[in-house]
Amino acid sequence: MAALVKGVGCAMRPLLPVVQTCNVNARRWVRALRRSPVKVVFPSGQVVEREPGPGKQPRKAADVASPQKQQQKQPLQVPSNPTPSTWEESGLRYDKAFPGDKRLSSVMTIVKSRPFREKKGKILLEGRRLIADALKAGAVPKTFFFSRLEYIKELPMDKLKGVSLVKVKFEDIKDWSDLVTPQGIMGIFAKPDHIKMTYPETQLHHSLPLLLICDNLRDPGNLGTILRSAAGAGCSKVLLTKGCVDVWEPKVLRAGMGAHFQVPIINNLEWEAIPNYLPTDTRVYVADNCGLYARAQMSMSNKGSNHSWVCDRRFLKFHKYEEEEEDLETGAKRDWLPDLEVQSYDLDWTEAPAAVVIGGETHGVSLESLELAESTGGKRLLIPVVPGVDSLNSAMAASILLFEGKRQLRVREEHLSRGRSYH
Asked: Pairing state of beta strands 39-41 and 95-96?
């Protein structure tokens, strides 16, 4: 029995190397299958053709694929960089202001100073509507500070090329804003030139032979409101003399509500230069409730007239000219105040191109304005108010006179058109 077992064991020995050899070859075949061969040849001579799996191709087949199929596959590939948007395609880029960035504070500090605005020729505009009006009129932007990219994308892209765009936190804009509710965007512009500006066609179409001269207006809110009324009435031009508040001061811009870009404005003028900006045969009218009081003082007696309550304070400023007009040889005093006729504001005074002078509430109109009115055949325009009531606000007086002038011009035009139709 032992011999039999021994014989069987001996008989089994030759099989072990064969089994091991088969195992090694099997592993080789598995590796070969992983290489995706076209054909598999077993040691027994059996040949098995392996079908490629669904969606797969042999490497050689992929290499010899037609160029058309390769072109069809290209659009399916995801590009490394996403396609730029329309705003980005225009070449516009912006910077981000990091904490401690002093660009905003330094610019705001300087641009809010009138000497800097006059020296560097730059102004500050705030709010999307005001900035859009400025761009539409042809104002040249230099720098924009904004808190959200959408605010910049709302503006015309062709106007933003070459402009420095800086994204800042809304809190930073809020600290420098003059608005009760900041809109998140501020712009630094070159100081507009009225000659190069493009004003709205509707404004030019309704322009009237009516000008406004601002004389020593100091209040920013009043000046902004007056400019708004001038644009609404259809004034052809607004002239500002030296002594007025800067027309590009932020408070004036806010009160003007875009009027700066609807009507030509020339500021910082000497009185000697005013006639150069007036049309031929223009008559200058002065809005001054002191007219009747001054005439009464010069001609009748020392008793105040019924209108003395209107202009006691404002009339006193003219006394400084009284000493200058004294004849040094005879000691006699000459008429120092130009003799201007006074008429009610609602009587006809627009038969020729007219210019209306509005003075400040504190200092009133200047002597130069009265002299210019006298030299052009103008008059004083009186707006009567109830006794005991102080003189009208400058902005209110300007609005009344400008829209009254507009009414008179419209009535005259209607009469002329009727006369032409009869002929």
From this structure: unpaired
